[in-house]
Amino acid sequence: MSSQKNDSFKTQLGLILAAAGSAIGLGNLWGFPYKAGENGGSVFIAIYLFFALAVGLPLMISEFIIGKHSSNNSSVRMFYKMPTNDETRPKKFAIIGILGTIASLLIATFYAVIAGWSIDYFLTGITQGYSQFAEGTEMSAAYFNALITDFGRSGIYAVTFILLAIVITFFGINDGIEKASKILMPALFIILIILLINGFMSGGFNETLDFLFTPRLTYLDGTDLNVGKTAIAAMSQAFFSLSLGLSAMITYASYMKKDTKVIGVSFKIVLFDTIVAFLAGFAVFPILFSLGGDPASGPGLVFISLTVSFATIPFGRILGIFTFLLLFIAALTSIVSMIETIVSAIIGGTKLPRKPTVIIVGVVIILGSILNQPALGIAIPFLQGLADNLIDQLDKLTMNFVIPIVTLLIAIFVGFRMKKELVFAEFRSYKVATLFYAYLRYVIPLLVFIVFISGILAL
Ligand code: TRP
Q1: Percentage of residues of the chain with pLDDT beyond 90
Q2: What is the 8-class DSSP label of residue 226?
Q3: With the C-alpha atoms ordered 422, 423, 425, 431, is the resulting torsion angle positive or negative?
Q4: Which residues line ligand 1 (CB under 6 A)?
Q5: How many whole angstroms from 41 Cα to the centroid of ligand 1?
């Protein structure tokens, strides 16, 4: 007997921690600081905040409402039976689940590679410390490049990471994901607080405040800011960080108790995720600024620039170990939700039992992660072009296309097609419900559409 129907989040806290675990990931800790740095700081931050709170929250509520009224845990199948205004079956909207599930698979394959690198840096910290990076970024960049082009080393860490995520998903929602989240998320918060205390005490704190909050329309080097480009980067970063548009929240919501208050839960998740992005900024930038590091140093910010600081600052070794452990935990709870989305979609469509499904999905992600190894292009010259930018291409594809399109469909589905009473039932005040409904129908699609078009124009 598949226990899928009975499996669920047993507590609301478990649901919130698991969903926050999905949202809080490499996007917050690795992506947010380096993108804020590349895009000049404060303007990026302001636009990010607007899109997380004013657009992300209503979309999060919408995903939860969809999941709440699902008859099936598959984000594809559930649309076959969703209650609608005209009582017809909204089968076409299954495209929301199909796109979300495929994109989750693609993201998981490169997410694991990056998370794998954090394992390497964590272990290096434990076995040797970071003093080898004391000479500066060149040394550190050389180490990073050696790691990512070492097929065996980088590959094994990615596979280890995927296997850990598989073990968690293997045991299902309550025994696997809920239990793991209740251990991992508190650990994550504790580590973040330790790093934060260091951030407050280190010399770079005031510079960080200035960088994040002083309005300025220039990049850090003083050249004029391209506001359009910054806006698009900030918007897609906000959606990605909240795990929107990839069926993760829809899937988790389908496992919650049906009397869960959707608005309160969504609000907490958005709040946690946004706070953690900022805390990550306050953990990372002071360390960087205290040694005059460059916040605009791109995707290598955490791996290349920070490690130089860890080589010299007081308690650098332990801070470094904590930082990479933090990245690893955050990434783990995120990839678990991608895997669960895919697994639920398959179980709902085929009635296969959970355990073999988890194993099959795990093997596919492992194979996919191999294609994402930068080393592949060196080992097999024929694949060079592919492997060189696959991570980049997949990142762009999901960020610029899949997420905006799917979130647009979600707003349209909940706003126009889904039974109106189900949306209104979440609100205590009829007035607020009416406002939300109008906002979801007309404002959100417009904003998302603008993101989408500008994203294409910016390519
Ligand atoms: N939110 C995650 C992060 O910030 C990444 C992510 C995007 C994600 N979409 C997802 C995670 C879907 C799980 C499921 O890193």
Answers
A1: 66
A2: -
A3: negative
A4: 22-23, 25-28, 104, 240-241, 243, 246, 248, 334, 337-338
A5: 22
